Amino acid sequence: MPELIPIDDPADPRVAPYLQVRERDLVGREGGFIAEGEVVLRVLLGEDERIQTRSLLLAENRVRRLAPMIADLPDEVAVYVASQAVMDAVVGFHIHRGILAHGERPADPGVAALLAGLSPRALVVALFGIANHDNMGGLFRNAAAFGVDAVLLGAGCCDPLYRKAIRVSVGAALKVPFARLAPGDEAMDLLTAAGFEPLALSPRGAEPLAGVVRPGRAAVLLVAEGPGLPAEILDRCRTLAIPMASGWDSLNVAAASAIVLHELTKG
Question: How far, in Å, CA of 236 to CA of 54, rounded?
Answer without folding.
Answer: 43
